[in-house]
Design a protein that fits this description.
The complex is a heterodimer. The longest helix of chain A is centred in the N-terminal third of the chain and has 38 residues, at 8-45. Chain A has helices at residues 2-6, 8-45, 61-71, 82-101, 117-138, 142-173, 178-184, 212-226, 238-241, 251-276, 293-318, 326-357, and strands at 199-200, 205-206. By secondary structure, chain A is mainly α. The termini of chain A are far apart. Chain A contains twelve helices and two strands. Chain B is an alpha+beta fold. Chain B has helices spanning 3-28, 70-74, 110-114, 134-137, 141-150, 160-175; strands at residues 52-54, 80-86, 93-100, 120-122, 139-140. In chain B, strands 2-3-5 form a three-stranded antiparallel sheet. In chain B, strands 1-4 form a two-stranded antiparallel ribbon. Chain B is elongated. Chain B starts with a helix and ends in a 13-residue tail after the last helix. Classes of the chains: A mainly alpha, B alpha+beta. The A-B interface holds A 41, 43-49, 316-317, 319-321, 336 and B 10, 17, 20-21, 23-25, 27-28, 30-34.
Amino acid sequence: MIDFLKSEPVLIVLRLVIYLVAIIAFVALNAAYLVLAERKGAGWFQRRPGPVEVGPWGLLQPIADGLKLIAKQTIVPPGTDGLLFRAAPALVLAPALMCLVTVPYGDTIIARNINVGLLMVFSFGSINVFAIMLGGWASRNKFAVISAARIVSQNVAYEIPMLLVVITMMMITGTLDLQQIVGQQAGGFWQWNIFRGIWDIHAGHLGSNILMPVTFLIFFICMLAETNRAPFDMAEAESELVAGAFTEYAGFSWGLFFMGEYANIVVGCSMATVLFLGGWQSPIGVVPVAWGVLGSLVGVGLFFAKMYTLIFTVIWIRWTFPRTQFYGLLNLSWKLLIPTSLVTLLLTGALITLKAIL
Amino acid sequence: MSTKTALKDVVGGFKSLLIGLRITLDQFFRRKITVYYPRETLKMPDRFRGHIELILDPVTGKSRCTACKLCERACPSSCILVEGAKLEGAKTKSVTDYHLNFTTCSLCGSCIEACPFDAIQFSKVYNVVGTSRNDFDNMDLVKQLAEKRQSWTPPPAPAVPADLKSQISDLKSVASPTPPTPEEPKSP
């Protein structure tokens, strides 16, 4: 019996189950507390304290909100496509959970390292749009349909520069394995992809691309647009479209959309951390991984510190800028981001060729 | 548009976004200015105009109103009604009825300006909410004054005689050629 439990397939399954439970718990808690962080942030940026009434410092507010949502009925309005209407919230959340499977939180803490992890994250990330579109379409509501149409054109527009940036990164790293990408950025913040542009100190040759900070910026902007965050929140656009694609949703199916949204923000910020900010690598030359379990935990801490700094920036941006106009949004992508990301792509290609020749 | 102006647009626009971010971050770290309303309230500023009220004279504990009806006449919307009576042994009339129709009052302050005795003022009451108009179209200010009087305490023993005494002694000391002897020199 013990031998059976220790056998390789059982351990793999056990490991996957533990990671699955942990990821779902993380996503749920994270969504709940990011809502609180969002509201606290909104308050602090406007010199208010944010929620303070429920629990000390408002810390129980997300639990109260969650209970309220669970207690509410999910109403399926007559005339809607019942199946799609019910499936959409799950379709928003599930791909986000899938993306988190390959994210390397630490040197050993990763649910399943896949050698095409980067590809997997972005392919699952694209399903999100599809799900919101289905939800909007199935609810048979004009606001929801307008929102769905906006989402599709917005996401098509921003998927292009984002994937161009990812291709650039892929050319530099030469791998789609996220753990390897993080491994390449060891040795201090100057070795992170975002700063490694001009000169690679360790390798002693030309860096990847001098425009790397710009590439990071493009990635970050596209991430904001892909997750439908302000100032690109055309999908929800409370003041114009009631609640956009979520107009007809109530109770926890509505809550699932928000869990999905916040999970996507986590995925986006994780990807930015992994691709550009060195993942779990420390910013000063030390290698915490060498210290064993403690080092791994420090690595996880560093990863989350970087990720939540980016998430703070996302919140900060939301409460600073007003929503863009739809034409402004598309212009930004087609006239600025796509050409710029193409330039960085070509420059990187040229530099790589140059390195090969020299 | 030339390439140069287009580039300038992009860079300038980006810079303006950074300035915006800096401004909000600055606000983020500043002191919070929220007033936790039901638990704490702001003090109404001096110029706040609530409905008018009769002033309680802190010395006598009564109104200074003599029912001269100047306020009644000054009121442009005729929302004041004053009645007075001469009390036994009093030199002047004193107010017995002061009714304010707050539903038509425009808080212009003419009554307060007209009052020769400083007997009325704007109150600082802002929580004026009721379930029927009767709560406000016939407010009994005399009754309000009587309620306020419940918490009024007569001022401590009149300070005037003591004051006068010291003044008198001062005058004496100035007048007398010999300096006054110190009463009790303090020990160091």
